[in-house]
Every structure is written in structure tokens, then in C-alpha cells.
């Protein structure tokens, strides 16, 4: 299911001359789809796919991730119960409102400025159904900017962000692209959409990444110091005095032994249990999250990374649904 029904793509070609008309057609056509998806029951967490990959600096495979993650969530090799006892097949816990039709919109000649606005408006639409909280399936990490912006604007103030990643993704404009997946958190911080940004799992960081971190007051926890920082990271308390906490998980935060299906393989990362310990012990009101940078085209070990991404979705759903 798509937020914009496929049979209506041809209509979009005739009305994309302005941003207002583009957003109008996406939102007006998707409202009915959203209501039907909810089935009369409002869940706490809503899956929304954003299959965007063209802002990747290396491989565009993450654009194909959302359907593979969904397939892994419901594949039958495991059950729908999270470690904390939430049942994903309970309609009060999770619903799926489909994908933003990123490629179809781009095929109509829409540039990234307008595309980012459409993504933000789609997230706001999902959040309009109280108490739905979006869990977004990427896509490359550039999607975090429009999603966080939407969450902050919809809630009326900044959030705290827990960002798990091998890279800080805070270049001002990587390779000249202000919307690069390596620049998403620069856009978030300069926009004032986050009060605190904690980056965990970092092990590939340039001098610009450190300088940008200092500029924006980012708390960067590098893997070389993980043994020292473990107690802090497994006992985090975030979100006091702001509108809630956003969690962004780049699958490459994990050591490639646990998740080889990523575009940027960076050895020396977190174990999967390290990540779960951080998430399970986090004291926070989690208002939204994303799972990004899974690349199915490199998931050569019998779909292992898809299952890793699916497990992350399960446990994040439990965290959001509390």
C-alpha cells in the first residue's frame, strides 16, 4: 500500500508545478488510505516507509529497504512478540500506513527541497491521528532531517535525539549536497529541531565531523571509548524539558559481523545486544524513531541484516508504545 495510490501517479504529472499543489494531492489522496489502514483502531506506533536512496554518497541500495524490512517482520521464522512483551499483531500497538512514493514524485521532476517538504508533511499527517507516533523505515539517512523537522514542528518544540551510527552525519554539505545522508544532522541542528544530540557508536569521524560536533554542542560517544562509556550509555535519561525523544538507528552502528548488509562497512562497532541494552534501559518518552541505511543489495548472508532491521523495528515499537 502506498500513501499515494499508484493509479493516480499520472495525475501527479499535471499538478506538480508548485509545492502547494504537490502536498495537496499527496495529503488529500492519502487521508483515505490512512483511515483504511487504521481500520478503526488507532495504534501507538505507525510504520511509514521512505524509500529514498539518491542522497547516499556511495550506494543507493537503501531505497529498496522498506519492503524487505516488512517481509522480515512478518516472515514467520520468529513470532510477533517483543522482548518486553508487546505484541506487534495487536492493532493497538502497530499499524502500517505504507510508503511515501519517493521515486514516483522524483520522476515528476520534483527537486529535493520540495521532496523534503512532502516527507515532512506525510509525517505530520500520520501524527495527526492521535496518538500515532511514526516509526520510519529508510532509506538513506537523509530522511532523518525532514522526519525530525516534522516531529518537532508538530509537537511544537525541539526534541532530544539518540543517534546510533558509525558516522556522525554532520557535514555541512557533503560533496556539495546539503541533503546528503552525511549532512542530515547538520540540517537538524541548524534548524533548532533538537536540544540535545547524542551520537553513539561513532568510529569513522573526520576533523570536520568533530568540529561540527563542537559547533552544535553534540555529545559524541566514540567506539574507542565504549568500555569506559558503557555505564553511561546503558543508563540514559533523556527528554526532560523538551517535547520528547527521537531515536535514529543507522544499521551500520552495528559491527558488520552482526549486520553486513549496509553500504558503508565499518568494523569495530556495537554488538546487537549492546544496542538493545541502550534502547531497553533508556528512560524517555520516545515520540518517533527511524531505522535507516539497511542495504538489501549487500545483504548476502541469507537475509540476516533484514532480520536485524526487523528486530530493531520490533524493539523500537515496544519503546514507543509504552
TrEMBL record:
Mn(2+) binds at residues 141, 165, 167, 169, 250, 252. Pfam families: Arginase (PF00491). CDD domains: Agmatinase-like_2. Keywords: Arginine metabolism, Hydrolase, Manganese, Metal-binding, Putrescine biosynthesis. It comes from the Eukaryota. InterPro entries: Ureohydrolase, Ureohydrolase_dom_sf, Ureohydrolase_Mn_BS. This is Arginase. The lineage of its organism: Eukaryota, Viridiplantae, Streptophyta, Embryophyta, Tracheophyta.
